[in-house]
Write a structure and sequence with these properties.
Blueprint (H helix, E strand, L loop, with lengths): L7 E3 L6 E3 L19 H14 L5 H8 L12 H13 L12 H11 L21
Antiparallel strand pairs: 1-2
Helix pairs in contact: 1-2, 1-3, 2-3
């Protein structure tokens, strides 16, 4: 059967043209092909829709979108592109503060400042004063 121009669909996310119709010839494809060229585009729509409806937060949307194909971002529908860029900005992990002390220095500092506990009574034991040497 010859492919007709009526079988050409344009993905609502990335704008890529692909073939699909609700007919016997394309029965082997899932029905979401009517709107999307790929499962990645279908997932992007679901993620951004859930984010826009505040079902998921920016950090969750960011994580879910990280594995999706965005190679055609320049061709995306403007509303999807804008939402995607906002999620990537808001949901990106924040930089962790850098430690200035090494782990061994932190442990030593904590040990020096820790109270001495008497092993039998679990009471705090006062440090005994040192005698002055003459």
């Amino acid at each position: 059967m010859a492919t007709s121009s009526k079988h050409i669909r344009r993905c609502i996310i990335c704008g890529k043209e692909h073939l699909y119709c609700n007919c016997e010839e394309y029965k082997h494809l899932p029905p979401w092909h009517m709107a999307y060229c790929s499962e990645s585009c279908k997932d992007v729509d679901a993620i951004l829709s859930n984010w826009g409806a505040k079902i998921i937060d920016s950090a969750t949307a960011y994580t879910l979108l990280k594995g999706k194909d965005v190679s055609r971002l320049e061709f995306w529908n403007e509303s999807f592109k804008s939402a995607y860029e906002q999620v990537m900005k808001e949901g990106a992990p924040k930089e962790q503060p850098k430690h200035t002390m090494s782990l061994s220095e932190e442990l030593k500092q904590n040990a020096d400042s820790a109270k001495k506990i008497h092993p039998k009574t679990r009471a705090t034991k006062k440090a005994e004063p040192k005698e002055k040497e003459d």
